[in-house]
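User: Hey, my collaborator sent me this sequence without any context and asked if I could get a structure. I don't really work with proteins. Can you help?
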Amino acid sequence: MQMKFFAHIERLNWELGYCSAKEQYPDKFIPAIVPGAVQLDIAREANYPDFNYADNYRLFRWMEDIYYTYRARFNLPVLKNNERLWFISKGIDYQFEIFINHELIHEQEGMYVPVELDLTSYLQEVNWIEVKVMPVPKRHSFPEDKTQASHVTKPPVSYGWDWHPRLIPLGVWDDTYLEIRSESYVNEVNVGYNLSDDFSVANIHVHAEAIVKNESDYCWELKDADGNIVLVEKGRMQPILDIEIALNTPKLWWPHDHGVPYLYSSCFYMFGNGGGVVQSIENKIGFRKVQLVMNEGAWDEPEAFPKTRSVPPIQIELNGRKIFAKGTNWVNPEIFPGIITRDRYKELLDMAVATNFNIVRTWGGAVVNKASFFELCDEMGIMVWQEFPLSCNQYPDDTEYLALLEFEARAIIKRVRQHPSLVLWCGGNELFNSWSKMTDQSLALRLLNALCFELDRNTPFIPTSPIFGIAHGNYVFRWKGQEVFDMMNKSHHTAYVETGMPGISPLETLERIIPLNQLFPPEPGTAWEDHHAFRAWDANDETWLCRDIITEYMEPAETIEELIVQSQLLQSEGYKAVYETARRQKPYCSMVLNWCFNEPWPTAANNSLIAYPSVPKPALAAVREACRPLCVSAVIHKFVWFEREQFTTDLWFLNDTVEQLSGLSVIVSLHAADEEIRISEWQVPEVKPNQHVAGPTITFKLPLWHVPLFKLILEVRENAAFNAAYTLMYRAHKN
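Assistant: No problem. I've predicted the 3D structure and written it out in structure-token form, which is a compact way to encode the shape of the chain:
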């Protein structure tokens, strides 16, 4: 985040009123929390029940079509001759007007463009500032779904999704305050750079824009991680200032599993006439070069004539090294983004790093995250795939929408581009398909590509996901008679960017959201359906609980605890297969991301690895094992095996690091109840850096066991940290 420090910042005490027509003025005001959401203020004042429970979220529906007025009172501050008072808001959702002492001074549509208003000429002894927020924007009245948001930059997910209720935030959602500034001030500092081909020199370009009312000096410093000044430049401040300077042997930024995410500090100081600092702007800088390059073997496709375009590149090359991207789809961690804090982001990102993820795709249907999210990704070494706020809609080519999109996109790019964690811009989610009907000729996507080239040309851009070669799906353990194991083993994709596996949430989550008399058995038309266990996805009424799939493999559960264990077993083994199979397809495949990591509210069943707010499902541990940079892996061909059947698996050793290993041996055994059968041992040949090794095919005739499950265990004699285990089903005879 670009942090601007001035002489004084004042927080305001806000209150909120509302009415049904724009021309009306509220006759009652209630306390408001800023940042937050109007719905939360009203619910708090009226003592609404928890909207996470049962169908209580429906109580908020009437709030979509109301006009809201925030107001705050403040006294005339003491201002020096060269000082001005500004109103600053980093985000107001979504369309609004701002008044000072009842005089309209600003109108805006768009939640990502910050507001900076000089209030000085409007000030009185006692002042009122008001922010009038308009109702939820809707392109049409019916249907009430995401298509209502197909003309705006507001997150379409809040209009209702298969894991998100229809709850549409409005209000002040990011930091908002009064600020005393010098009449001369810097409003932007952007530090860009180009790395030499051998990464030995960073040619830095510092661009600053300022309002200069009197003679002022500046000083720009670059400090290393220990606070030592490594570069400095001083001079006279200008309205437009450009500095060219080189840093020799820069330390590079790496994702956490490939090196140190090294960060420098850029510090820009502006001095007043007396020589004192009147403003400082600080932000972190990480030096890295990122490209999307062709996946290995992609130029060979298609094989036959007439030739057409090969699959586009999706292999991330960072600092000259090809990185296999293992990660997840990140969704907003709260329904109301105004209440998301740095601590909330950190809690989840810590879990992502612990899961061996090195990338998150910040999905285009949700809100563009606050600055602290990107700061944490910079610090923690997590790569970010950032999408613009377009998803699953046909966004128009008309002049009004394109102007709005450009207005918002410029602000998004300028806010995010400085972060070394940013490795990819994407126009939006699932736009080249039958439900969105956009193409690479759609003006919105041509515009976004042009803006990224103009403002951040050194970061790759793709128009949408998926594009040819990249896979979205599947999202269940078994689809049209084919299991995830078979589907993944037969798949051939450059990246698996969305692939899901549903699992029931832990009991502690269910007990918070489902009335006791509805808890078991789960049924449509109850709170289970409100929380997405039934009819969440139009492809199957049983999603996301998937009882039909569970009962294909197991006896009907007699308790909720038993059902949870059954569901979570399928989710764990299914996700393990997804990640390990995608990794084994390297180098043609270069990325695997599940749908999804987290939730903005507690679902009863979902593809998520973490139930809201931060409760890990067992699948999280399974994925953590599957994503270890170094590990042994087995090809699983199916889930159910029978007595006397020839069990078959293929062994691999996976290496996504720069390490080279040798002298490893793998013991292969089957475990059923208390019985252990050692069936093979593999002497692993030399494992080269950033390469996998294919091993032997192992076969073994299964004995008669009296158990429903057995395990395949792979033990690496020399290092147990590389071990792997798989749970499979066993049946004594075929039906």
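In plain terms: The mean pLDDT is 96. You can pass these tokens on to your collaborator as they are.
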